[in-house]
């Protein structure tokens, strides 16, 4: 039987070569969705393979096993938020503006990345077991505390900020205020209504989170600086 030109072309065509780094990125993107939606135990490698047009064998080649992939997804999630913080140019701002920008960034990042929040919640269910084996996550997070410490020191040197503020505790406070907004949005809005989760409500919350942190940090005679950093 005579073959059509299209059939000859399809038969003779060589399969497209996929970029290995692109394949890895695709796997991590889909795995983030799968793990954040279904947890470590509920996530299916078959589903990740199907959605990325690859194979379980290839996934295991890149990441070792399911837990290795999960740990790598955690590292990517933390790397994204810490990478965003390094782009804020906190050292180029006055201390009040720097702290406000950091607060607003953290709130908006968490709001825009609910999968990150779910991944952190899932890892807490596992008592942080996988984070403990990741040198990358420890290395990513320590600079965040150091950057905040630098902002505090500059503010204290200018007599703007109170003395004795622990940068780790302040990081905890900023994270807690921003985290709850996403982690408890479903239950909170079901009980109290969704007004706080409209675009306007979220903007107000974001602004007030920064204001609360600044009121805690600023010396009483400098509270008038709040809201004047634009």
Automatic annotation (TrEMBL):
Domain of life: Bacteria
Pfam families found in the cross-reference section: TetR_C_29 (PF17938), TetR_N (PF00440)
Region described as Disordered: 1-20
Residue stretches making up the HTH tetR-type domain: 21-81
GO terms assigned for molecular function: DNA binding
DNA-binding region positions on the chain: 44-63
Biased composition (Basic and acidic residues): 9-20
Coiled-coil region(s): none
The UniProt record lists the keyword DNA-binding: yes
Keyword Chloroplast set for record: no
Keyword vocabulary terms for this entry: DNA-binding
InterPro entries named among the record's database cross-references: Homeodomain-like_sf (IPR009057), HTH-type_TetR-like_transc_reg (IPR050109), HTH_TetR (IPR001647), NicS_C (IPR041474), Tet_transcr_reg_TetR-rel_C_sf (IPR036271)
Name recorded for this polypeptide: TetR/AcrR family transcriptional regulator
Annotated organism of origin: Rhizobium straminoryzae
């Amino acid at each position: 039987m005579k073959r059509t030109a299209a059939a000859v072309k399809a038969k003779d065509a060589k399969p497209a070569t996929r970029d290995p780094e692109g394949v890895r990125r695709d796997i991590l993107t889909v795995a983030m969705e799968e793990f954040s939606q279904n947890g470590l135990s509920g996530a299916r490698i078959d589903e990740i393979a199907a959605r990325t047009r690859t194979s379980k064998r290839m996934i295991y080649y890149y990441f070792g096993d399911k837990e290795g992939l999960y740990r790598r997804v955690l590292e990517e999630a933390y790397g994204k938020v810490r990478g965003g913080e390094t782009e804020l140019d906190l050292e180029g701002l006055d201390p009040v503006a720097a702290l406000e920008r950091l607060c607003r960034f953290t709130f908006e990042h968490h709001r825009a990345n609910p999968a990150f929040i779910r991944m952190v919640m899932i890892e807490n269910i596992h008592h942080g077991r996988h984070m403990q084996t990741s040198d990358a996550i420890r290395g990513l997070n320590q600079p965040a505390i150091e950057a905040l410490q630098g902002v505090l020191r500059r503010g204290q040197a200018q007599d703007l900020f109170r003395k004795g503020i622990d940068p780790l505790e302040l990081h905890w406070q900023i994270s807690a205020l921003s985290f709850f907004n996403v982690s408890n949005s479903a239950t909170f809005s079901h009980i109290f209504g969704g007004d706080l989760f409209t675009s306007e409500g979220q903007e107000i919350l974001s602004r007030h989170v920064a204001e609360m942190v600044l009121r805690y940090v600023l010396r009483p005679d400098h509270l008038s600086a709040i809201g004047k950093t634009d």
